[in-house]
Design goal:
Elements (H helix, E strand, L loop, with lengths): L2 H7 L5 E3 L5 E3 L3 E2 L14 E9 L14 E5 L1
Parallel strand pairs: 2-4, 3-4, 4-5
Antiparallel strand pairs: 1-2
Length: 73
Amino acid sequence: MTIEEICFKYNIDNYTINDDGSIDVEHDVDLSYALSNMSKLPLKFNKVNGNFGCSSNNLETLEGCPKYVKDMF
């Protein structure tokens, strides 16, 4: 699955794909409950200029979490 397809699946828009394959998002990202069948994040985030939520999932690692988040919820 491509980065664009993953972003579409999880309703992530207004993003930029960086040279290293990470993404910068200009607003909130809410993956809470969305990854119940996954043990890791499906994308590599760099910056999220809003809130970043990934609670209530089966994540076993925080690999791929943003390096910068404006707010957390």
